[in-house]
Amino acid sequence: MANEADGTVNVTLQSTTKSKESVRYFGTYPGKLSTGTNQVTLPKMFKKAVEEGDEGHLMLLPRPGVAFWQLYTKKALNQLIEDTKVNPKFQEKNIGKTMASTIAKTAIPVEYDTQGRFVVGKEFAAKLKGENNDVIFESGHTHIKLWTANDYNAEQAKLKALEESAEMQQAMADVLDN
Fold first, then answer.
1. For the chain: N or C, fewer Cβ within 10 A?
2. Whole-prediction pTM value?
3. How far is CA 74 from the centre of its chain?
4. In terms of DSSP bridges, do strands 2-3 and 8-9 run parallel, antiparallel, or are they unpaired?
């Protein structure tokens, strides 16, 4: 567009680079914890999603009192923190800001090697209770849930009854048949 008053021309160019979609995870994958090093290997599909995305490295979020820990990309975790701060449900007594602060200070950057191995720490290893070293990586769509296999299997048993209920069957049909 020309500006006749000063003789300048403004030109707007469209970007030739596509903005990347948010990182999303799909599927459930088994893994093993190495007892000597407390390492697990990030499933190949999850590793690929992180590396192809543009959201930064993974962050491990321990969940005290909850059966699983969560893995977020740095961008997704930052969004969770910001959403928590401004959530109207948490405005009273600044609970949102306190929760956001707690999330930020407990998150652990994940540094995995070329094969996807990373350390989970003693607290998660202790959750295995010496029974076995099996873990489960479960998609949470925007994040990954890391479970001990025993906790995951117990949760799946609870969910099975709900999934088989007539109400859930109808809800699934309503969503998938449209």
1. C
2. 0.78
3. 9
4. antiparallel
| Contact yes or no for 60/110 (Cβ under 8 A) | yes
- The span from the CA of 130 to the CA of 143, in Å, is 27
Map tokens 């909850």 to a residue: 66
* Residue 61 and residue 69 in contact, taking contact as beta carbons nearer than 8 Å: yes
Q: What is the pLDDT of residues 19-54, one digit of tens each?
A: 577 899 999 999 999 888 889 999 999 999 999 998
- Residue type present at position 8: T
Using alpha carbons, select from 18, 113, 100 the residue that is nearest to residue 58.
113
pLDDT digits (tens, 9 = 90+) for 58-117: 999 988 888 899 999 999 999 988 888 888 888 777 788 888 888 999 999 999 999 999
Task: Kindly state the tokens that stand for 136.
Answer: 């489960």
Domains of the chain: 22-150 (3.40.1550.20)
